[in-house]
Amino acid sequence: MAKLTLVLAVLLVALGLVGYLGTGSLHPTALIPAWIGLALGIFGFLAISPNEGRRKLFMHINVTIALLGFLGSAIEAVRGYVHAKAAGLEPDQIALASKITLAGLLLFYVILCVRSFIAARRSGKV
Predict the structure, then answer these.
(1) DSSP states of 74-101 as a string?
(2) Helix axes 32-47, 93-123, angle to 10 degrees
(3) Which tens digits make up the pLDDT trace of 7-52?
């Protein structure tokens, strides 16, 4: 799972950079996926360890970051869409796509991590 975390981190950094550059570098909040990716990458790198306790700790930190990131991005995507529609405006498509993509990637990662944790517990590798 640590290697998958590093792949996800690269994807999130790319998403943040594309979103930032896609907005004409005007909105620094478009870099939020990149910051989440950076945090996941650091802890993912630290999770590549032969020490099982250390690996478990950093993977649990990663799944917590991912879960909080999923909740924040999903709530923000819905809030931004509803707010724009209530004001009679069209939502910013780049921002909405970035938030939905971030939420989707993080949800997929959380599900994979939870399944991995359950499988490890069942196999007795705890």
Answers:
(1) HHHHHHHHHHHHHTT----HHHHHHHHH
(2) 20
(3) 999 999 999 999 898 877 788 888 999 999 999 999 999 999 899 8
The answer for residues whose C-beta is within 8 angstroms of residue 109's C-beta and 6 or more apart is 4, 5, 8, 63, 66
- In angstroms, the Cα distances linking 15 to 1, 61, 86, 117 are 21, 22, 28, 27
DSSP string, 24-76: TT--GGGGHHHHHHHHHHHHHHHH--S-HHHHHHHHHHHHHHHHHHHHHHHHH
Q: Any idea where the domains of the chain sit in the sequence?
A: 2-19+30-123
Closest-CA residue to 113 (of 42, 73, 46, 61): 61
CA distance 102 to 73: 7
